[in-house]
Inverse folding.
């Protein structure tokens, strides 16, 4: 009974709204039944869209890489060490989520113009860190808490170097955290319209920058395809990152066997 | 050895602390530009801000929309999570519920527009053909935020319900407690800190975000983010200091509310670990 209720609610409020977009994107304008690739063809024929996809992927990639590096080291410090001022540091790391992002962006804008970061991809990458890094620190912190110290101490006792411990123990065991961070960071970066528009100044054209003016056109089929594209990209990014990740930490497997 | 153990956490924290300089500098700079609009220290901008009728209206309008979105998201998200833990334990159920999180806020806003605007797919079915997008009451904005934030609430709450010690349920039952005391004594102490923290994040975001009201908001009244954005880009720059001041004020309000609530959470956490 409860199970039925669950799926009825999910159907009403999640599956059908998304389903409507999917259906609209695959049917010809004004019809709900006639299959057509009009929307998707129209979408990919928009050169601005392909360029913007490239820009969003590039920016998202760098934002994600920085998030992993910053989040992992801070998460480790917060999870495995006790030190003076820990509570203060902890509170400080939530702060960027509570301060209105417009306040920060307004304030940073003039400085960015002065040092030449306004209207550049680097400036946009930096401002995208603000709504993402706090989440990454949190995710990695939880990851390191459940990992604990024991495994690393064991590796240390056996004489492993810090790098070896990281690649053979921490990274593989933290894989779920890394995956969450990759997905969440990319989705958030893709969703930023107003801060990208202020810092990017119209020169850095991400997907969000193309989507907003697109909504004024009455072509619902095209907009539906574009909307779905926003969900497809993070999935593609996630799958690619997963494939890369699989190559990384087990490189040393053969080396480890030689010990025995 | 001792020294390096003391330095190591700070070394690990360095990149994150460097990152913090960005939002801190931004906030400080916005504050500075609001009190030194012409290179001289003055509170004039704030006097202008608070005597601006548009500002006060926008502020309370935003406050109401943020409070309503936060309250409804928390309430529904919480009830949904506790009612459907078994379904949410399965990957399929979990991923379905989290699906809206993959879409940016503005895509969800477009969806609300598509369904609820005049002549939209749902508004045609409602009595009186009422449109709930771009409406002055802000129902469209609240609906969009609920669609996006309820899954977020479930994401934050689910771990609590999955790892919670269920013996407390049995305990209240054995002691003759009804379902109300079961919620109050066995669930709330664990759930409240997470609910409050999630609530603060949602409140701060909905209070000040631009994208959703820009798409499904009414032309009048405007939310604060829209008003300040217009001030920021006003042609002659004379209203720019107002934009800084409005954002500094908004930050202060959110800061005070969070401070109060965080204090409350910490007290509660201490009660759980030391008291009980």
């Amino acid at each position: 009974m409860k199970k039925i209720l669950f799926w009825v609610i999910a159907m009403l409020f999640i599956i059908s709204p998304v389903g409507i977009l999917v259906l609209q994107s695959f049917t010809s304008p004004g019809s709900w039944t006639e299959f057509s690739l009009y929307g998707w063809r129209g979408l990919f024929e928009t050169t601005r869209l392909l360029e913007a996809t490239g820009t969003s992927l590039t920016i998202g990639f760098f934002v994600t890489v920085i998030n992993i590096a910053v989040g992992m080291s801070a998460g480790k410090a917060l999870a495995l060490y006790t030190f003076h001022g820990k509570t203060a540091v902890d509170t400080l790391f939530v702060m960027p989520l509570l301060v209105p992002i417009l306040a920060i962006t307004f304030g940073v804008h003039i400085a960015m113009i002065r040092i030449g970061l306004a209207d550049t991809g680097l400036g946009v990458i930096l401002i995208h860190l603000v709504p993402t890094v706090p989440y990454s620190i949190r995710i990695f912190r939880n990851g390191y808490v459940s990992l604990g110290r024991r495994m690393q101490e064991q590796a240390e006792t056996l004489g492993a170097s810090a790098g070896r411990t990281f690649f053979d123990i921490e990274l593989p065991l933290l894989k779920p955290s890394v995956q969450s961070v990759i997905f969440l960071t990319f989705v958030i970066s893709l969703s930023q319209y107003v801060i990208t528009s202020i810092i990017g100044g119209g020169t850095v054209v991400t997907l969000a920058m193309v989507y907003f003016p697109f909504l004024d056109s009455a072509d619902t089929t095209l907009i539906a395809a574009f909307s779905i594209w926003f969900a497809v990209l993070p999935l593609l990014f996630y799958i690619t990152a997963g494939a890369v990740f699989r190559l990384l930490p087990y490189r040393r497997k053969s080396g480890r066997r030689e010990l025995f | 050895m001792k020294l390096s153990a003391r330095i190591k956490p700070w070394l690990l924290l360095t990149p994150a602390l460097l990152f913090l300089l960005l939002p801190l500098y931004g906030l400080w700079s916005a504050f500075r530009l609001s009190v030194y609009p012409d290179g001289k220290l003055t509170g004039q901008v704030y006097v202008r801000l608070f005597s601006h009728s548009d500002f006060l209206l926008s502020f309370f309008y935003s406050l109401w929309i943020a409070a309503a979105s936060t309250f409804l998201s928390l309430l529904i998200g919480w009830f949904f999570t506790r009612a459907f833990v078994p379904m949410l334990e399965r990957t399929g159920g979990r991923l379905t519920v989290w699906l809206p999180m993959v879409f940016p806020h503005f895509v969800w806003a477009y969806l609300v527009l598509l369904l609820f605007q005049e002549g939209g797919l749902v508004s045609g079915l409602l009595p009186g053909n009422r449109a709930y997008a771009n409406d002055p009451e802000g129902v469209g904005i609240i609906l969009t935020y609920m669609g996006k934030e309820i899954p977020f609430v479930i994401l934050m709450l689910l771990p609590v319900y999955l790892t919670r010690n269920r013996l407390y349920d049995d305990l209240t039952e054995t002691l003759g407690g009804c379902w109300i005391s079961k919620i109050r004594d066995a669930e709330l102490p664990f759930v409240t800190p997470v609910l409050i923290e999630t609530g603060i994040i949602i409140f701060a975001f909905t209070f000040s975000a631009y994208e959703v009201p820009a798409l499904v908001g009414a032309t009048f009244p405007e939310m604060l983010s829209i008003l300040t954005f217009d001030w920021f880009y006003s042609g002659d720059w004379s209203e720019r200091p107002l934009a800084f001041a409005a954002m500094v004020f908004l930050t202060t309000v959110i800061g005070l509310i969070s401070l109060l609530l965080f204090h409350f959470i910490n007290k509660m956490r201490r009660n759980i670990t030391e008291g009980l």
Remarks:
- The first helix of chain B runs from residue 2 to 35.
- The domain at 42-274 of chain B is CATH 1.10.3720.10 (MetI-like fold).
- Chain B has a mean pLDDT of 90.
- Chain B touches chain A through 72 residues (CB under 8 Å).
